[in-house]
Amino acid sequence: MTILVTGGLGFIGSHFVWAARRAGRRVVVVDDRSGGTSPPLPPEVEVVTADIGDRRALDDVCDRFSPRALVHFAGKIQVGESVANPGLYFDVNFTRALAMMEVARARGIEETVFSSSAAVYGEPTVVPIPEGSPKHPVNPYGASKLAFEYLLEGFGVAYGLRWAALRYFNAAGASSDGSLREAHEPETHLIPLVIDAALKRRPPVRLFGTDYPTRDGTCVRDYIHVSDLADAHLRALDLLAAGQTIGPLNLGTGVGSTVREVIEAVRQVVGADVPQIVAPRRAGDSTSLVADSARAHALLSWRPSRSDLATIVEDAFRSRR
User: Fold this and answer.
1) Topology of the domain covering 2-171+223-251
2) Containing H/E element for 289?
3) Which site in 48, 80, 94, 192 is 20 to 30 Å from 221, CA atoms measured?
């Protein structure tokens, strides 16, 4: 069975491609290269440069490779940009993704794993957050992810699509050998920004708000290693292939770290102080996002193995060094 992977040149997508090939799966990647990165992929994996909304290009991919499953990573991911330009986020993350799903349905692709986000919850009412918590996104990024989840649910009811929406908390880390890393431009994720600030490659880290109702006044996030995420995708595909629909599924550790705790972890690993400045709160940021991943543990027999904060920082540092 061939897996069609959209956004396979991205941070999580490239890790998944390697994990899939190590597991003996056939893979074809569709990526518009808008992320500006070219991570090393297995040499036998073909990368088709195309937009997910380009029906003709996707039809051609289906003609050539006959994929039976879809793993959808492609999309816009910057919270701040989504607040400033919401139309772009709904266009890419929903409208073009709908065009992709129409092609997939016409071509008989019955299994889809979607790269969703904890941003669908907004300000949670309960922490750790179970999948049944109210969904009230506080930014267009989260809203566009939730909209696509509803689309998958509708396709499941109408057409029998088996689907999983894997709600990541904060993806982080890098491949253990350092060959794959985060390389967003502009970079907005905390751990690479903090490491680069410690290495004097970037300006001081900005602490967006130090007056949150947390243990040190900074936001709390649940960091999950990208290799653990890749493993969860493979397990989800296996369950879908066995005939079961999964629906939404949280992927996290259940342990939250504050911004200041991340900075301290980087200081210890890098062995250098991290320059930092305090800035006002950023629009669209939630106070605390920590996963209740009990459902993923039960359905997928999945538990993170590399997601303690020290290992995440060590792997990320190795990849950036």
Assistant:
1) Rossmann fold (3.40.50)
2) strand 288-289
3) 94
